[in-house]
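We modelled the chain as a single entity of 133 amino acids. Its sequence is:
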Amino acid sequence: MASSLRKERHSVSDLKIHLVCVTKYRRKIFTNESLDLIRKSFVEVSKKMDFNVLEFNGESDHIHVLIEFPPKLSISQIVNALKGVSSRRYGQAGYPKPYGKQALWSPSYFVSSIGGAPLEVLKKYIQDQEKPC
């Protein structure tokens, strides 16, 4: 069985997030072709920054991404890089941005950690640790 743990020089981790980004003003501007361009941009950024895009999909006004990343990166670093590069590539490809603005993405985003044991199981595990004498 292959391990899903990321092994680095000084750490072992299993950090995964579900990221949702919406277009500026929630405009329905994405097509299959533009979503493919954004996916390729995300994969390119992930290779440069050493994280993994495990899954990507989207609709006409937002995208969903499943990301695995090392503890040396913060979520905000990842999101800023993904949104910045994809917005630039989207504009360079000639796709329209909402209302002709410079920004493709809304400045906000949703992120949720995923995986691991349920919260109640972790609480019980911590509570059941042996206390020193």
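As a brief sanity check on the tokenised model: Residues 47 and 122 are 32 Å apart (CA to CA). The radius of gyration is 18 Å.
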